[in-house]
């Protein structure tokens, strides 16, 4: 886990409290690591700067001992949260995160749950894809600021379809945006 991101979030009281929750495991955000295949380039490089997403850290809920991994090396979890410190470089309006970036954060968080559960794939065939992302904007995501993006699996169908819900919350726990997403495994991958 990058010590600078960990130290950054531990210095923020409300995040530090959540990081101490022993029902979650804290890890480096996988999509912030550049891969040789150029996968995750958007999150690893394009929006990885002091003026965009200055710091990012992920937690996943510890799996129940009764839940078995779907394949070796995967993490059978149904819930994650990502802490993000956002700069003003992704604004749509002055002091407000662009709506497309709000949707991107939600999609990234919810998609990571499947990455944990299913593992990686071959380049170009990494796994399930977003079929729809219904996003409700309830409050502006004010920048600069630190937020938590959450995702939780609500339904799974034959390891081919997954419904996941998520939200973005501010330091006071206010929901800024909510989403429901359907991910589908293309039939050519089954």
TrEMBL record:
Highest taxon in the source lineage: Eukaryota
CDD domains, per database record: PaaI_thioesterase (cd03443)
Domain Thioesterase: 95-176
UniProt xrefs under PANTHER family: THIOESTERASE FAMILY PROTEIN (AFU_ORTHOLOGUE AFUA_7G03960), UPF0644 PROTEIN PB2B4.06
Protein name per the record: Thioesterase domain-containing protein
Taxonomic source organism: Aspergillus rambellii
């Amino acid at each position: 886990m990058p010590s600078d991101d960990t130290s950054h979030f531990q210095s923020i009281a409300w995040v530090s409290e959540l990081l101490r929750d022993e029902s979650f495991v804290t890890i480096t955000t996988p999509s912030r690591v550049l891969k040789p295949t150029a996968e995750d380039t958007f999150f690893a490089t394009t929006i990885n700067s002091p003026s965009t997403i200055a710091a990012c850290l992920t937690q996943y809920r510890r799996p129940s001992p009764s839940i078995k991994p779907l394949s070796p090396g995967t993490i059978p979890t149904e819930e994650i949260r990502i802490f993000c410190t956002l700069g003003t470089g992704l604004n749509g309006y002055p002091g407000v995160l662009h709506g497309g970036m709000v949707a991107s954060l939600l999609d990234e968080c919810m998609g990571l749950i499947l990455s944990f559960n299913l593992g990686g794939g071959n380049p170009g065939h990494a796994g399930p894809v977003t079929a729809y992302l219904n996003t409700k904007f309830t409050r502006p995501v004010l920048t600069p600021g630190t937020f938590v993006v959450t995702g939780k699996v609500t339904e799974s169908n034959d390891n081919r379809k997954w419904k996941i819900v998520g939200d973005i919350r501010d330091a006071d726990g206010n929901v800024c945006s909510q989403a429901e997403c359907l991910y589908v495994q293309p039939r050519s991958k089954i």
